[in-house]
Design a protein that fits this description.
8 helices, 7 strands, about 260 residues, Rossmann fold, 7-stranded parallel sheet, alpha/beta
């Protein structure tokens, strides 16, 4: 019987890369996130071409606890249990603390941290009952270190790290593992789109934006790829990773080794 993976924030970028990695193992895939109806249908069809399992889109708003709960219940009703939960949904805003909009703070904490609390709360009981579950939280290098002007994001990602460790301990005997991945800069369409704007704003080349702005903290001077993150998640979901629990795992080219 096919296992089921739910990946939040998975209609593009990192989340979609992770969804593709599980699709290639014939999981049932539940994607969630923003996008036009046309874009979402294209994504569903692409994933369906890669898996023998089912592919479902759920439009639950990660700002709304009742919609998150309904999403989990709907998928449990359909598949019985969510075997792999990947909490990836996230947003960002950059500003000095004195200028940081309160509504942006609230939204970032809600989507980047609190949504993971809700997905875990409503899915882990059935994981424990079947003595198997994998929860993978996408934190960030900013779950371990800080950067200026990102107070809400850094606070939320540090919170994800603490949440990960706590739930890992609570269910360590139940066959459920809870781990966090802390990526550095990942080359996604969103990052690609920023290159030209950053270059124009700063009066430098796109190559200089990559090396002197985006990758200045990553010693390898290379972006992490969505494929690498997908492969990492697949490994953490495997039986080989059953004793990796409560781990905060960097994939940042050496950023946090400094």
């Amino acid at each position: 019987m096919a296992k089921t993976a739910l990946i939040t924030g998975s209609t593009s970028g990192i989340g979609l890369g992770i969804a593709k990695a599980f699709a290639q193992l014939d999981y049932n895939i539940i994607i969630n996130g923003l996008g036009s109806e046309e874009q979402i249908n294209e994504t569903i069809n692409e994933l369906k071409s890669q898996t023998k399992g089912e592919v479902i889109y759920d439009a639950a708003n990660m700002l709304k606890p009742d919609e998150i709960e309904a999403m989990i219940k709907n998928e449990q009703d359909k598949f019985g249990v969510i075997d792999v939960l990947v909490n990836n949904a996230g947003i960002q805003h950059v500003s000095k603390i004195e200028d940081f909009p309160t509504e942006k703070w609230d939204a970032i904490i809600a989507i980047n941290l609190t949504s993971a609390f809700h997905t875990i709360k409503h899915s882990i009981e059935k994981m424990a009952a079947q003595k198997f579950g994998r929860i993978i939280n996408l934190a960030s290098a900013h779950g371990l270190v800080a950067s200026p002007f990102k107070s809400a994001y850094v606070a939320a990602k540090h919170g994800v790290v603490g949440l990960t460790k706590t739930i890992a301990l609570e269910h360590a005997k139940d066959g459920v593992t809870v781990n966090a991945i802390c990526p550095g800069y990942v080359r996604t369409p969103l990052v690609e789109a920023q290159l030209a704007d950053q270059a124009k704003t700063r009066g430098i080349t796109e190559e200089e934006v990559i090396n002197n702005v985006m990758l200045v903290a990553q010693p390898t001077k290379q972006f992490i790829t969505v494929e690498q993150l997908g492969a990492f998640c697949v490994f953490l979901a495997s039986d080989s990773a059953s004793q990796i629990n409560g781990a905060i795992l960097s994939m940042d080219g050496g950023w946090t080794a400094q």
